Here is the input.
Amino acid sequence: DGGITQSPKYLFRKEGQNVTLSCEQNLNHDAMYWYRQDPGQGLRLIYYSQIVNDFQKGDIAEGYSVSREKKESFPLTVTSAQKNPTAFYLCASSGTGNQPQHFGDGTRLSIL
Amino acid sequence: EDQVTQSPEALRLQEGESSSLNCSYTVSGLRGLFWYRQDPGKGPEFLFTLYSAGEEKEKERLKATLTKKESFLHITAPKPEDSATYLCAVQAGGGYQKVTFGTGTKLQVIP
Here is the structure.
């Protein structure tokens, strides 16, 4: 079945550590996105990529980095510069035009 | 700036008690309005896309409608399994497919 796979489901970060969240899709979508979800807030866009080897900052990119070396993969690194990383992270993908985004089941990141 | 406001924040219904969720939006050049369902600890699940005022979409007990300023998600005779958070999102015109999400309505259906 086509879909979006995020891993791990739970992740713990120590002080000063970088961690990487995985996102893989087999929907053949060109565009991929990373969002952060905090209680009581709407989804906030971290980074997006419309094509391989190209990506753009979203509304809250500070302290995060991404790469898009393959169409299927869009990993997110939460760096030590992100001072408040505890959140639920969601990866999404979409086709071209005004097609809806489809989401993975998220990674919950916590601080040790 | 694009804005999406959902109301109410939370809604508790008895099984079989129909109701509606509201999504008010301000966007320059609406390209699409999306409804999602999100269960605890899961990613949002796509339900509907509406593209123009007057459009309606249905799926089982859910019906989504769209006007120039708001969208409604009508839930007819809900069941406990309809309990979830329902998210509304809008996509504006322009080159990039930016989508703005509301904060959701948390629906609880009591048996």
